[in-house]
Hints:
This protein has helices at residues 43-57, 106-118, 132-137, and strands spanning 2-3, 8-12, 21-25, 82-85, 93-96. Helix content is 24%, strand content 14%.
Amino acid sequence: xxxxxxxxxxxxxxxxxxxxxxxxxxxxxxxxxxxxxxxxxxxxxxxxxxxxxxxxxxxxxxxxxxxxxxxxxxxxxxxxxxxxxxxxxxxxxxxxxxxxxxxxxxxxxxxxxxxxxxxxxxxxxxxxxxxxxxxxxxx
Length: 139
Ligand SMILES: Cc1cc2nc3c(=O)[nH]c(=O)nc-3n(C[C@H](O)[C@H](O)[C@H](O)COP(=O)(O)OP(=O)(O)OC[C@H]3O[C@@H](n4cnc5c(N)ncnc54)[C@H](O)[C@@H]3O)c2cc1C
C-alpha cells in the first residue's frame, strides 16, 4: 500500500504467477449513473497513472497491462459506514455506505445487524455510524 498525495495505491501479489493486481483508490465527483464510471478522468489517463506508479514504486514488475477495469463504490461524506435502524419502519435494520472498506468488517457488521434485528440493540459502539449524523450536519 502506498498512500501518496492524491491516490491511495494498493495491490495483491501474483496468484497466477504471471500477473499482479495494482489499483488506485481515488475519490472523484459522484456519478449520476454507473455508466459514467469510465468518463472522469478518461480510462487512458488512469491506466497511464497506474503504469507510472508501477515503474516508480515497483521497479522489478513489468508495467505491461494485462487487464484494466474501473470499479465504483459508495462513499459516505466521512467515509465511515452507516449502520442503523430505519427511522420509520420498525424492525428494519440496515448497513450501507461501506466506502471501499466494508469487506473486512463483514463478520462484525453481520453480528451487529443480527443484534439490532433480534435484540433491538447491540453492545458494539455504533453511535458514530448512525444515519442521523448526516441529517445533523444537513448533508
Ligand atoms: C474495487 C473494490 C475494492 C474493494 N476493496 C476492499 C478492500 O480491500 N477491503 C475491504 O474491506 N473492502 C473492500 N471493498 C468494499 C467491499 O467489497 C464492500 O464494502 C462489501 O462487499 C459490501 O458488502 P455488501 O454485502 O453490502 O454488498 P455487496 O458485496 O455488493 O453484496 C450485495 C449483493 O446483493 C446482490 N444484489 C444486488 N441487487 C440485487 C437484487 N435486486 N436481487 C438480488 N440480489 C441482489 C449483489 O449481486 C451482491 O451479491 C472493495 C470494493 C470494491 C468495489
